[in-house]
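Changelog note: in this version the structure field was regenerated for every chain. One regenerated record is shown below for reference.
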Amino acid sequence: MRTKIVAGNWKMNKTFDEADELINQIIDQLAEIELADKAVIICPPAVYLELATDLSLESDLYVGAQNISHFESGAYTGEISAAMLGSMGVDFCIIGHSERRKYFEENNSELLKKVEIALKNNVTPIFCCGELLPEREAGKHFEVVKTQLQESLFQLNAGDFENVVIAYEPVWAIGTGVNATPGQAQEMHRYIRELIREKYGEEVAANKTILYGGSCNSKNSGDLFSQPDVDGGLIGGASLEAEEFISIVKSF
């Protein structure tokens, strides 16, 4: 059975006090929910990771980072290593978010290195893939996603690949208020699962958690999550308010 996941990507938001308050609110509300096969993750800015891991110790909340270095250690000022995250009890890390690809020019080869280093340090990658609006309008969205996967995740052996979460994020729907329709999301998620089946076999494909990311909120999450190949969401702006985020968790 695939694990259902709702992960909140806070991006570069919240002061320390605001982060403290939001984490506590989420933990309090999670205590009233039967999660069963669900995992709830928050990915705050790196400076709040220790706060988040400390507060979440007695709860069902998991903590993830938003990025890691593709270097293991050394003289790389400002970088954060996977080993650092692992040593702090950080369970997940977003890798390859479209904003990292766009603003920091991360490529598939570099992202593969990040995935490998994360896995080596027992940090589960949440690997993002997705197309730009011109690519979808040109009918190249399947080709783009296939290339992203083939040049990065599909370089892993089956054992390592099983420990990766995939997040499909149509870039044209991130922060725009425009989201893919449930049908569009399902179409791409089904396609990704078929690519996995071709590469790694039926069992690996059937058990792979694939999340949707792209202006997902409490109003549309139920319809999106009801699709057979959509296993949850990577949530952006809607994760910055506890009641909205919890509403999304409850929408499975």
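Spot check on this record: The chain is about 40% helix and 15% strand. The chain has one domain: 4-250.
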